[in-house]
Amino acid sequence: MFKQQYPYYLAGEAVQPNADLAVTNKYTGEEACRVALANPDAIDAGIAAAVEGFEEARKLPSYARQDILKHMAGCFRDRHDELAYALCIEAGKPIKDAKGEVMRLIDTFEVAAEEAVRVGGEYLPLDISARAEGYQGITRRFPVGPCSFISPFNFPLNLVAHKVAPAIACGCSFVLKPASRTPIGALIIGEILAETDWPHSAFSILPCSRDGAELFTTDNRLKLLSFTGSPDVGWDLKAKAGKKKVVLELGGNAACIVDRDADLEFAVQRVILGAYYQSGQSCIGVQRIIVHQDIYEAFKNRFVEETAKLKVGDPLKEDTFIGPMISQSEAERIEMWINEAVSGGAKVLVGGKRDGAMVDATVLENVNPKMKISCIEAFGPVATIQPYGDFKEAVRITNDSIYGLQAGIFTKNIDHVMYAFSQLDVGGVVINDVPSFRVDNMPYGGVKDSGLGREGVRYAIEDMTEIRLLILNKIGRI
């Protein structure tokens, strides 16, 4: 099921020039397998192939692209256990979360299969004045060209899917750089894609070092760069990308407001999930909990009680809720940020301990909003909690951030819902659930330092295509 060596995919062919990239078991720290590592010459060849392959990919009829995507979704379903196991090993993702991500991978490809036959346009009446009488317009979307994709470690299947599936659906060739810590899922996707009628030259999946990946960003033969990862890296890549389109899905320090009329028990359980699933390594994980003062103590006590019950341990065990962070260095960073907050007057209500790459689920109170653990994306199993008095104050606290990805609100007050929708400076507002909620056909992305553009298959296709206008004169007159 889990191989000792994996090739990369260059122009759709499995290539094993080396086994230079070691992939570790994130729980044990031991080497799990080795992967071929692409050098700049291989990346250059992959881009050249994508340019050539684009001419074939764009000519595939809609039904053929749909069939490819359906076939891939079926293969993912058949290989569900293998994919989930690989996620556990390479990402340290608890097995329940890993199985959930495989199902989302299938969802994303199935949605893309539907959208493959919906890439259309519209009719435009142009006779808005006498001078344009007899003129009509038709628009149609055309694939933008060879695309560059750079994906992160935290969702190594589904965040690859959100780039690859829309590209296939609309006929764009691509080169993909998966995260070097978690390349296996992307390579299995490549193995399955290579079995289909998608032109082999139209895709390459090339694990490489960050230093060797410059061409993914700077090469002018590529017409779009889609990057998911940290804000610092993302904005730096945008500055180097030249004239190509850039889509950035970056970080956040998502806030969740619990209003005074909220279903307290339901809110506790959902915020637990939002804050600590996947060891908090999600850009829409709940980092800041803002609770109405009337229910603050009750919510806090229940939240701390439930947080203390979460099991930390081996991600392959069904009852594990929190697995390892992606590396010990990241766990050490979280520990340092917690200690800095405590030194500044914050109080640890539960957790706060680290063992290797494992960090206990942690709740902090009395946190200064300027502390790193509050104002910078933590990307770990830590949440801060604070009271508020007035709903406008809660919205202001939520907006007091350099990020703006998603926000969650537990409330029964429709006026508060509509006020938040109009005033929150975020890409998505989630009512009666956590900001961590995502369905794979919805528009997903942020504002401010959280990025540019939107993912979600149909919305990604909009970025991967360009509108072309046909103007007709004296047509249909007899």
Detail the topology: elements first, then pairings.
Elements: E1 5-6, E2 8-10, E3 13-15, E4 21-24, E5 31-35, H1 40-59, H2 62-78, H3 80-91, H4 95-115, E6 121-125, E7 135-143, E8 147-150, H5 158-170, E9 174-177, H6 184-193, E10 203-205, H7 214-218, E11 224-228, H8 231-240, E12 245-249, E13 255-258, H9 264-276, E14 288-292, H10 296-307, H11 328-343, E15 347-350, E16 354-355, E17 358-359, E18 362-365, H12 372-375, E19 382-388, H13 391-399, E20 403-404, E21 406-410, H14 414-423, E22 428-431, E23 447-448, E24 451-452, H15 457-463, E25 465-473
Parallel strand pairs: 1-5, 8-9, 8-11, 9-10, 11-12, 13-14, 13-21, 14-19, 18-19, 21-22
Antiparallel strand pairs: 2-3, 4-5, 6-7, 7-25, 12-24, 15-18, 16-17, 20-23
Helix pairs in contact: 2-4, 2-5, 3-4, 4-5, 5-15, 9-10
Shape: globular
Helix content: 25-40%
Radius of gyration: 24 Å
Give the uncertain stretches in residue-range form: none
Structural class label: alpha/beta
Percentage beta strand? 15-25%
Largest sheet: 7 strands, mixed
